[in-house]
Design goal:
It catalyses: 2 nitric oxide + NADPH + 2 O2 = 2 nitrate + NADP(+) + H(+); 2 nitric oxide + NADH + 2 O2 = 2 nitrate + NAD(+) + H(+). By secondary structure, the chain is α/β, with parallel strands linked by helices. The chain has three domains: about 5-135, Globin-like (Orthogonal Bundle); about 140-230, Elongation Factor Tu (Ef-tu), domain 3, CATH 2.40.30.10; about 245-365, 3-Layer(aba) Sandwich (Rossmann fold). It is built from eleven helices and twelve strands.
């Protein structure tokens, strides 16, 4: 581990249990220095602060992996074009971040930590600006018309939209979405289909508690409504050079990117077996199982194993999806794709480590679905 990585992780551990304070201080300083930016963000900043802290943690964790670091920060730079972020804003943002960390850490902060975060932020900013510049020929966001909307359960909906201009992406990626019912509030959702000639995009959404955007996308939007989409992000994509068989682990609406990957495989796969494990709390949450079984019947290389964790009457596999995957192993020679709620992803990654699956063969995206 390099000195920079060690200092970043060591200093972050000091403030980790006070992340909310870091986010609060950070945005207060940013908006004080750039009042014009405040109107681009939602009134309630709780989720935005969480996303900021998730981005910081992901960047810190990947700083010793140049490819992952560059890809993640480049995608973040493209995504932030929707906030009209310009190169001139980056210096002030870096100062705000270091100041927030210093204030929350208090007496435990030192000059070495200060310099490490300034060096790390400079690298992050350079890659974000490079990503934004590389995408400058495309609009920072696009409008899309909702074509179809279907409720699949009490709190899950599947809808289809068509962007008004082309939106290039790869199967497995996700985009930030904003709707007219919650302006300025952006949430990330995976695209649930592979790119097609018609340009249509499918989304699977679960209404999460009092979630403003998820609730609107499940209960309020209808055909004819317009939504806004930002630049595609994410690295949970297929490596066509790999010949290894595949295991996909999906929890709830984390099925969305997995389904897109399967659709892409349908176009060219002839040699790789694909094992899909689809977990939910109860049978009603297995909202797309009929379609998955249809695909499995059409393509012999695809098998589907559904499981419920909180449905005693369910006749199929029962238990947490990670435990179900373990029962079907061994999997050491397979490529893995994992998608779902943050806790489920974390548990599955830990389980795969115990099964001695090499981490380089496991793809997932670090955001809560």
């Amino acid at each position: 581990m390099s000195d920079l990585s060690r200092l970043l992780k060591e200093s972050w551990s000091i403030v980790e249990d006070r992340q909310d304070k870091v986010g609060g201080y950070f945005y207060a300083r940013v908006f004080l220095s750039n009042p014009q930016l405040r109107d681009l963000f939602p009134v309630q900043m709780d989720v935005q602060r969480t996303r900021l802290l998730s981005a910081i943690v992901t960047a810190v964790q990947s700083i010793e992996d140049p490819d992952r670091f560059n890809e993640y920060l480049g995608s973040l730079g493209r995504d932030h074009r929707k906030f009209q972020v310009e190169p001139a804003h980056f210096d002030g943002v870096g100062d705000a971040l270091v100041e927030a960390l210093r204030i929350v850490a208090g007496d435990q902060w030192c000059s070495e930590y200060d310099q490490a975060w300034r060096d790390a932020y400079q690298a992050m900013a350079e890659r974000m600006m490079a990503g934004a510049e590389a995408d400058s020929g495309n609009p920072p966001l696009c409008h899309a018309e909702v074509l179809r909307h279907e409720r699949r359960s009490r709190d899950i909906a599947v809808f289809t939209c068509r962007p008004l201009q082309p939106l290039p992406y790869r199967a497995g990626q996700y985009v930030s979405v904003e709707c007219e019912y919650q302006p300025r509030v952006w949430r990330t959702y995976s695209i649930a289909n592979a790119p097609s000639d018609g340009g249509e995009l499918d989304f699977h959404v679960r209404a999460l508690g009092a979630g403003w955007v998820s609730g609107a996308l499940v209960r309020r939007i209808k055909p004819g409504d317009m939504i806004r989409l930002a630049a595609p992000m994410g690295t949970m994509t297929l490596d066509r050079k790999s010949t290894r068989d595949i295991v996909c682990v999906a929890g709830g609406t984390g099925l969305a990117p997995i389904k897109a990957l399967i659709q892409e495989l349908i176009k060219y796969n002839r040699t790789r077996w694909v094992h899909l494990f689809f977990g939910a709390r109860n049978r009603d949450d297995l909202y797309d199982l009929d379609e998955l079984n249809r695909l499995a019947a059409q393509h012999p290389w695809l098998s589907v194993v559904p499981a419920c964790s909180e449905d005693d009457g369910y006749t199929g596999e029962q238990g947490n999806i990670c435990d179900v995957v373990t029962r079907y192993g061994p999997w050491r020679e397979h490529d893995f794709f994992v998608s779902g709620p943050a806790a489920m992803v974390k548990t599955t990654l830990r389980g795969l480590t115990e099964l001695q699956v090499p981490s380089v063969r496991v793809k997932y995206d670090p955001y809560t679905r």
